Records
---
Amino acid sequence: TAKFSLVAGDFEEIYGGESDPDEPQAGQWDAILTCFFIDTAKNIVNYLRVIHRILTPGGVWINLGPLLWHWENNSTNDPSVELSLEELKVLARKIGLEISNERVIDTTYTNNSQSMLGYVYHAAFWTATKIL
């Protein structure tokens, strides 16, 4: 009976990039999990607004991942917004998310256990509750 969504496509297009009060996804999700995701944003402000808007009051956003900002120094010169972790947390709070359970988790993204080479990311983890 639980609603679940896993969709391929542009996050802002699928879940409503504009601040439309009639957006069918608005206030529909009790929890959102983002894993190695938020640094794919051209504009993280838009991602945070969408996350906030589609959460129910008291809904929880759980995040894990690095901030490697995929659009930084892109070859097409598309403008993008890249924030530090601290700047991102300040913005999330201003948008109406209360951040808790913050920590850094060392993790891999893809890995070959039989290889001598491996990459470890110092990934940011937090939970955030919609308070406004």
---
Amino acid sequence: GYGDSPPLETVVTAQGRVAFLDRVLQELGMRRPVLVSPSMSGRFSLPFLLEQGDRLSGFVPIAPVGTKDYTAEQYQRVQTPTLILYGDRDTGLAPQALQNLQHLPEHHEVILPGAGHACYLDKPEDFHRALLGFLRQLK
């Protein structure tokens, strides 16, 4: 809903969003998935990563919202392999997200030239190449 979805009481808090995402992963029977998180999904993925990152094989944030809600120390405790991916034309959210996400100790960065905020739509081949390269290196 691009942030315009009606609020649900179960996901108003970060803890509620963690529980929601946990339930989704359980219902889908996913074990140690790679969580790909563009933009607004950061409200769900970031608290999950910080609380239950050990349940993920990898994390791929794409200029997610909410990165400023957490401290460098919280990010530094996460050991989940992370691919920070963004377009160089995303001059709004990407720089702020990058500044915060760079505190993740197990991260790599890929900048997609000529791509905006939705870099996966602007440069799908480059996006998929970077994503598949990251997935291949995971244990």
---
Amino acid sequence: PELSEEPPAEMVKMTKSKTFQAYLPNCHRTYSCIHCRAHLANHDELISKANFKIFLFFLMQSFQGSQGRAYLFNSVVNVGCGPAEERVLLTGLHAVADIYCENCKTTLGWKYEHAFESSQKYKEGKFIIELAHMIKDNGWE
């Protein structure tokens, strides 16, 4: 019989590689989905780091999600957005849309589409991700 360099088909292990729509640079601290490790946000996009006035709002309001504490981000990657609906949150009435991980479809938080109170307008177009759904990646020591 002729020798083959390839293993028999039953011995070949197939693995499904994960591909995300966007990868954040490895040189920055990032947040990823705790369920599938898809990149979600760069630490530089955390609102509390972007503007001291907004940082004070952040500290005073201590963002809360349905599963506990949450972070407010300027922008995120690898998330899908559901339809907007009006919800009464701790800070008043807002139009929000749930956001979910594009890779594993887990609901992560929401996007502020519209704030009805003028003091909350800074949240429009921003994203809440609950800490229960995030893990820190790259450069956190």
